[in-house]
Write a structure and sequence with these properties.
single chain; alpha/beta; Arc Repressor Mutant, subunit A; Rossmann fold; 8-stranded mixed sheet; globular
Length: about 350
């Protein structure tokens, strides 16, 4: 009887590369939630001045030191933080974006996608939405998402910060892709607190603008515009775009607004714009445009997000955009790709 050592055993065949790839994809939740926890704790902010021991970090963060070590060790294995001698950790280029004080910080986005219960529990019920076509968010949280935010201001604050940071990182690519020189007054419908419109105005000194959103939302635009010195070039107006939009613009822009609505409501919003626009006026929709075939595209997954959290919201193909634009009276003129996932869908009100 012979004894087989590990070296003498026949090595089983390695798993096929495609299987290994699928397993890695399946374990994506591990990474998403690990990043979310590190972001929530503010680990990156505590490493700004340099490497620290896990014991020091744990005391500052009021967490279990060995559990924190295991978390940071796992993240360091994929390049988020780096472990040195004696369980000291430091920032890496990836970890820099989890700081709260840097341009393009995505700390809030990491918290929202990784550990905000209302969000990750919703994704845990994707099967419900696929079976029924209804938003799992309402099934899980017993109310529509914006009602939930009204009752949970902390979650609302995380969501708003997450959407702002996600939006801001793409603004330069979007703005540089379009020629605004023929426009004098640009109205941003659903423009929140004015960050997107302010970026456009800063890049185009000849432009004036109006940012329009619900009164409670747009209230924050005035101090923001004043801080940037744009109060003489931009007004903040409150109202509901489902009912009406301000007149006076020779062009109207909406960023990721159509995504939140079914065709019926999207067409109503477009008609409200059409009603006040001059003939020849331009309409610009900044949106993910779903491409046909098997090409990877962020929009194919943000479309699932819309399935989960909205009643009928969706990302659209070029054909679907043309359909709702024609229904509202517009003529689609071009779809411009940008250096980011968003495209600019341009339409005009016919002469």
């Amino acid at each position: 009887m012979s004894i087989m050592t590990p070296h003498s055993q026949a090595n089983p065949a390695s798993p096929p590369e495609s299987l290994a790839q699928l397993l890695q994809m399946m374990n994506g939740m591990w990474l998403t939630q690990s990043i979310g926890v590190a972001a929530k704790l503010g680990v990156a902010d505590h490493l700004i001045e340099g490497a620290k021991s896990v014991e020091t970090l744990a005391q500052s963060l009021n967490v279990n030191s060995q559990a924190l070590y295991r978390l940071l060790r796992a993240l360091a294995s994929v390049g988020i933080f780096a472990e040195g001698e004696h369980q000291h950790f430091q920032l890496t280029p990836l970890a820099e974006y989890l700081r709260s004080d840097v341009p393009h910080s995505i700390r809030a986005l990491a918290i929202w996608t990784g550990i905000e219960p209302s969000h990750w529990q919703t994704w845990g019920n994707l099967l419900y939405s696929v079976k029924t076509g209804k938003p799992a968010f309402e099934q899980v949280n017993r109310m529509p998402i914006f009602d939930y935010f009204d009752q949970n201001p902390e979650a609302a604050a995380v969501f708003n910060q997450a959407m702002t940071s996600a939006s801001a990182m793409y603004n330069p690519a979007i703005i540089s892709a379009y020629d605004f020189s023929s426009i004098t007054m640009l109205v941003d419908i659903g423009g929140g607190q004015g960050a997107f419109l302010a970026a456009i105005l800063q890049a185009n000194p000849h432009l004036n603008g109006i940012v329009y959103d619900l009164p409670v939302v747009v209230a924050g635009a005035k101090p923001y515009l004043e801080q940037l010195g744009l109060q003489q070039r931009c007004q903040a107006v409150g109202g509901s775009f489902l009912e009406s939009v301000p007149d006076g613009g020779d062009a109207y822009i909406m960023k990721n607004v159509m995504t939140n609505w079914d065709d019926e409501h999207a067409i109503q919003i477009l008609k409200n714009c059409y009603r006040v626009m001059p003939k020849g006026g331009k309409l610009l929709l900044v949106q993910n445009v779903i491409v046909p075939g098997n090409e990877p595209a962020l929009g194919k997954f943000t479309d699932l997000e819309m399935l989960l959290v909205t009643s009928g919201g969706r990302e659209r193909t070029a054909v679907e955009f043309e359909k709702i634009l024609i229904a509202a009276g517009f003529q689609l003129t071009q779809i411009l790709p940008t250096g980011c996932p968003s495209s600019i869908v341009e339409a005009v009100k016919p002469e």
